[in-house]
């Protein structure tokens, strides 16, 4: 495979472009396709946040003059720490302040991640139903998937963007400069 180098924001920008296109196109599809694309938008939104944390944190670490923190961070990357660890620990260690996961966009992200986990970690509930003396065993409850709506896709996009904005705030970026950071990192053109 040929090595292709790009700025750290390139992949985040690409993923956000894909997520925005996915969400924008959902209404033009069949019900079955809509459910699939809503679920995919939830998966992608959470993946974008994790990729952003990896990339942006690495950029900040490289700018800092703290060899010990850099080595610790690189070990975290190498050992593929889980997303929960990254969102809870890295902002505090690297930026000096935490993302509040109990309110606002932090709480929204926890909710989004939980929905993603529910969709990802389906396990057969091994239920049974009887229809006209025919017993069907081994069924799985897919209610969460079946209840997905377009609002879930919009929420996924809005929440992913919101977490980036929150990380920028944690870094001390001024409120008026956050739209420009969102353009730089997420391809979201300032209004």
What order do the SSEs take from the amino end to the carboxyl end, as H and E?
HHHHHEEHHH
The tally of helices reads: 8
- Tell how many strands the DSSP assignment holds: 2
Please mark out the parts with pLDDT under 50 across 5 or more consecutive residues, or reply none.
none
Helix coverage percent of residues? 55-70%
Mean of the pLDDT scores?
95
From the N-terminal CA to the C-terminal CA, the straight-line distance is 39 Å
Class inferred from helices and paired strands: mainly alpha
Please tell me what the overall shape is.
Answer: globular
Query: Largest sheet, order of strands side by side?
Result: 1-2
Using only C-alpha atoms, the radius of gyration works out to 20 Å
Strand content: 5-15%
Structural domain count: 1
Largest sheet: 2 strands, antiparallel
Write a structural description:
The protein is mainly alpha-helical. It has one domain. Helices cover 66% and strands 6% of the residues. The protein has helices at 9-25, 31-63, 67-78, 83-95, 104-120, 143-146, 150-171, 178-186; strands spanning 127-131, 134-139. It has a two-stranded antiparallel sheet. A hairpin with a 2-residue loop joins strand 1 and strand 2. It starts with 8 loop residues before the first helix and ends in a 5-residue tail after the last helix.
Quick structural summary:
By secondary structure, this protein is mostly helical. The chain is built from eight helices and two strands. It has one domain.
Record keyword descriptors for this entry.
two-stranded antiparallel sheet, globular, 191 residues, mainly alpha
């Amino acid at each position: 495979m040929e090595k292709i180098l790009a700025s750290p924001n390139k992949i985040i920008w690409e993923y956000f472009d894909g997520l925005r296109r996915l969400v924008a196109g959902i209404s033009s599809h069949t019900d079955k396709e809509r459910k699939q694309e809503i679920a995919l938008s939830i998966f992608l939104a959470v993946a974008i946040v994790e990729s952003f944390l990896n990339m942006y944190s690495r950029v900040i670490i490289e700018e800092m003059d703290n060899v010990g923190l850099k080595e610790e961070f690189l070990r975290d990357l190498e050992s593929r720490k889980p997303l929960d660890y990254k969102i809870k620990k890295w902002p505090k260690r690297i930026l000096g302040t935490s993302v509040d996961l109990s309110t606002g966009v932090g709480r929204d992200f926890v909710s989004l991640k939980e929905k993603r986990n529910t969709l990802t970690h389906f396990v057969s509930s091994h239920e049974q139903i009887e229809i006209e003396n025919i017993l069907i065993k081994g069924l799985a409850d897919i209610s969460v998937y079946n209840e997905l709506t377009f609002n879930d896709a919009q929420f996924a996009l809005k929440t992913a963007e919101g977490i980036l904005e929150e990380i920028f705030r944690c870094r001390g970026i001024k409120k008026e400069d956050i739209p420009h950071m969102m353009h730089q990192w997420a391809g979201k053109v300032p209004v």
